[in-house]
């Protein structure tokens, strides 16, 4: 077990998988010579050569389409979209091809491809470069959508994604790349559709994913230290398929839930989770499910305004203050 | 099918014991008809049915105790008549099918017991979380009994758990009602862990009645919380007894005779007008002066003691006082006192004179601040102009709350009581 960064975990996992399976190859803008805008692919071109690590033109629709074709013919492309915001240029390839070909052509060709892409705000990249569009993809049958919150999960889930025969949207977060965590050195995979109880608690459940899950864990640990509330943190890890069972069981235990998400609130991941909870744990709810999400505006460039628009630990704490029960359960 | 639930008959009531079923399974019940008698912490009361039908099942048998809101019987069409004794496993219904004979008093604002209203109840809708509803159903709790602490008065799990905890820990009911003018909360007292009484083989163990539990708890509280001090005085009753004899001699058929105690009640009440600080309560660093003078009179009843209250005793004539006292004593002894008869006292009198007591000290009845212990009047030689004269002398002892009352005040108050009783025509004013 070594403590490494999220970035390093991704880099090592890509190297592992390139080594393990010669059908795996990487595509994306600036991932080769430049070693990636966020250095996730550092050293890989040198190690595996230009056939396995392919620099593409700035043409998302084109190279995602190429990846779909390559996957149909048996390769395992791992595409990097430089930021989540650029993925919209490839929507038709993802929605109408990657997600549907296996179904529409009678199961003749699975699409074993991965699209890795970092989302998230907070870097002053302004309105068109700071978005969280996971809902768009989690909505689509035929895709897997995952969003790990720590280096160990990133490794296990990226391996699962690459070895999976379905198209996977693998969501990274700019704010997580430098975070560190213990990562087992052995080869392991983490199944999709399995949420993780990041922290057990009794008073209230916070359901989250990606960077907000790691933030929720920090907040929960702090509240425990301050002896305020015992918060259970459910890290979804996988948005599609969604682990309803873990969510529902946790809410059955605590009776109260907050969904903490960095997307916009309306029609967001929280809406889906809240609906699931009321469908499957209605009789266990002691309060309405709360959603803590970003303010519904295009993200501003100005730092103070950006901070005001993004959700975060403060907003979560306020929500916990409002929702937590009077009596503590231990 | 409507349940008959244990009603809340006073603001301090937590549970009630069924003393008698007037209807048996299979009996027809009319709307408003009395079906059972129940003993609360204060009094024995009657339970009326809200609905008409056949009493199908008795869920709480005579002698058993049930928390308020728990179904005690089922009234239906008669299709499911079952004999008494079946345990209260029935699911509680949403409606409360019970009225009470005596008007239940307004919920006291200062007591911690949940008031039966204001739970966001509008148009019959009780706001409650799904979890709270499920828990209430599992535990047979009537949601109308709870006050919601959630947003908009929503009943949530916390409230159910509070209620359940209260049920568990509450062996004795909550503090007795505060007086009408200004309710005073009696702080909960943690009694020192008592050493368990060792039981000999032939010892008999008798459970305390609700009333006895209340007395035990409240007087323990009083002695632990209230710093008592005692001041005594001798009162010459010779003239008072003479006047009483004359008054009673002319009372005629059916008239009410005036007792010595009635004279003492009147004297105490008039003296309280002059010493309002004695007609008071202590609360959290505050001195609460009650505007009304309501005198509680301790009445010996089988298995305990009740203190019914004569309201505005200072304003009432001796005949009226005598008539009211007589009625209250009769009701007390018949177990018919209602919470209204018992609430709101501001000063109490305990009279053991008829039992030839030479002197005694009484325990203050919180939140009141004083109680007068009255001993027997005895023929005693007292010096009058340096000559021994035989007079009727009665010893009284006033117990007072030293947090708000002081020796000199209480001594002067007693002097005033004495002056009034020794100048008996002053009582006629």
From TrEMBL, chain A:
Keywords: Oxidoreductase, Pyruvate, Thiamine pyrophosphate. The keyword Oxidoreductase applies. Residues 4-179 form the Transketolase-like pyrimidine-binding domain. GO terms for molecular function: oxidoreductase activity. CDD domains: TPP_PYR_E1-PDHc-beta_like. The keyword Methyltransferase does not apply. Transmembrane segments: none annotated. Its cofactor is thiamine diphosphate. It comes from the Bacteria. It holds the Pfam family Transket_pyr. PANTHER family: PYRUVATE DEHYDROGENASE E1 COMPONENT BETA SUBUNIT, PYRUVATE DEHYDROGENASE E1 COMPONENT SUBUNIT BETA. This is Pyruvate dehydrogenase subunit beta. It comes from Dictyobacter arantiisoli.
UniProtKB/TrEMBL annotation, chain B:
The keyword Transferase applies. Its EC number is 2.3.1.-. GO terms for cellular component: pyruvate dehydrogenase complex. GO terms for biological process: pyruvate decarboxylation to acetyl-CoA. Keywords: Acyltransferase, Lipoyl, Pyruvate, Transferase. CDD domains: lipoyl_domain. Pfam families: 2-oxoacid_dh, Biotin_lipoyl, E3_binding. Belongs to the 2-oxoacid dehydrogenase family. PANTHER family: DIHYDROLIPOAMIDE ACETYL/SUCCINYL-TRANSFERASE-RELATED, DIHYDROLIPOYLLYSINE-RESIDUE ACETYLTRANSFERASE COMPONENT OF PYRUVATE DEHYDROGENASE COMPLEX, MITOCHONDRIAL-RELATED. This is Dihydrolipoamide acetyltransferase component of pyruvate dehydrogenase complex.
């Amino acid at each position: 077990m070594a403590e490494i960064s999220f970035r390093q975990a991704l880099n090592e996992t890509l190297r592992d998988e390139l080594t393990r399976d010669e059908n795996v190859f990487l595509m994306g803008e600036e991932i080769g010579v430049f070693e990636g805008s966020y250095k996730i692919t550092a050293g890989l071109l040198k190690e595996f050569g230009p056939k396995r690590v392919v620099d593409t033109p700035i043409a998302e629709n084109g190279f995602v389409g190429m990846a779909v074709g390559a996957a149909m013919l048996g390769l395992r492309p791992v595409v990097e979209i430089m930021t989540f915001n650029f993925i919209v240029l490839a929507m038709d390839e993802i929605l109408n091809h990657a997600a549907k070909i296996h179904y529409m052509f009678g199961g003749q060709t699975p699409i074993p491809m991965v699209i890795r892409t970092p989302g998230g705000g907070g870097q002053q990249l302004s309105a068109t470069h700071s978005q969280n569009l996971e809902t768009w993809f989690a909505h689509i049958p035929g895709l897997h959508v995952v969003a790990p919150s720590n280096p160990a999960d990133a490794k296990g889930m990226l391996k699962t994604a690459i070895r999976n025969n379905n198209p996977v949207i693998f969501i990274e977060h700019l704010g997580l790349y430098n975070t560190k965590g213990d990562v087992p050195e052995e080869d392991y995979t983490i199944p999709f559709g399995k949420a993780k109880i990041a922290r057990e608690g009794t008073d209230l459940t916070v359901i989250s994913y990606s960077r907000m899950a790691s933030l929720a864990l920090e907040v929960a640990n702090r509240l425990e230290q301050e002896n305020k509330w015992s918060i259970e943190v459910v890290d979804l890890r996988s948005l599609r398929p969604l682990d309803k069972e873990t969510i529902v069981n946790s809410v059955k235990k605590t009776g109260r839930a907050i969904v903490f998400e960095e997307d916009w609130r309306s029609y967001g991941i929280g809406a889906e989770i809240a609906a699931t909870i009321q469908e499957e744990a209605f009789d266990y709810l002691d309060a309405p499910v709360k959603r803590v999400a970003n303010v519904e505006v295009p993200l501003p460039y100005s730092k103070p305004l950006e901070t005001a628009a993004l959700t975060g630990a403060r907003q979560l704490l306020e929500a916990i203050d409002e929702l937590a029960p009077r009596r503590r359960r231990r | 099918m409507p349940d008959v639930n244990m009603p809340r008959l006073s603001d301090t009531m937590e549970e009630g014991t069924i003393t008698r079923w007037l209807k048996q399974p299979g009996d027809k019940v009319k709307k408003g008809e009395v079906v059972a008698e129940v003993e609360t912490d204060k009094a024995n009361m009657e339970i009326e049915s809200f609905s008409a039908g056949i009493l199908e099942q008795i869920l709480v048998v005579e002698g058993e105790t049930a928390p308020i809101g728990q179904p005690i019987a089922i009234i239906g069409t008669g299709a499911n008549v079952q004999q008494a004794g079946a345990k209260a496993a029935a699911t509680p219904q949403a409606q409360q099918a019970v009225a009470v004979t005596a008007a239940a008093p307004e919920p006291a604002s200062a007591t911690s017991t949940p008031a039966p209203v204001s739970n966001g109840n509008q148009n019959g809708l009780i706001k409650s979380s799904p979890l709270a509803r499920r828990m209430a159903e599992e535990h047979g709790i009537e949601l109308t009994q709870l006050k919601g602490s959630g947003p908009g008065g929503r009943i949530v799990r916390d409230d159910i758990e509070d209620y359940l905890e209260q049920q568990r820990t509450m062996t004795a009911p909550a503090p007795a009602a505060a007086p009408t003018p200004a309710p005073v909360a009696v702080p909960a007292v943690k009694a020192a862990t008592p050493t368990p009484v060792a039981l000999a083989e032939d010892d008999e163990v008798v459970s305390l009645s609700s009333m006895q539990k209340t007395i035990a708890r409240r007087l323990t509280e009083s002695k632990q919380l209230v710093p008592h001090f005692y001041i005594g005085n001798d009162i010459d009753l010779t003239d008072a007894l003479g006047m009483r004899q004359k008054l009673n001699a002319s009372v005629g058929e059916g008239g009410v005779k005036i007792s010595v105690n009635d004279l003492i009640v009147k004297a105490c009440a008039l003296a309280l007008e002059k010493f309002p600080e004695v007609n008071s309560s202590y609360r959290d660093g505050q001195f609460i002066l009650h505007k009304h003078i309501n005198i509680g009179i301790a009445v010996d009843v089988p298995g305990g003691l009740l203190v019914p209250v004569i309201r505005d005793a200072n304003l009432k004539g001796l005949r009226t006082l005598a008539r009211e006292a007589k009625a209250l004593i009769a009701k007390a002894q018949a177990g018919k006192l209602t919470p209204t008869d018992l609430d709101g006292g501001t000063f109490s009198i305990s009279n053991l004179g008829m039992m030839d007591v030479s002197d005694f000290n009484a325990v203050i009845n919180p939140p009141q601040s004083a109680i007068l212990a009255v001993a027997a009047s005895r023929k005693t030689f007292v010096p009058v102009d340096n000559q021994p004269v035989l007079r009727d002398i009665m010893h009284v002892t006033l117990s007072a709350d030293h947090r708000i009352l002081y020796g000199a005040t209480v001594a002067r108050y007693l002097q005033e009581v004495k002056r009034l009783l020794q100048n008996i025509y002053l009582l006629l004013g």
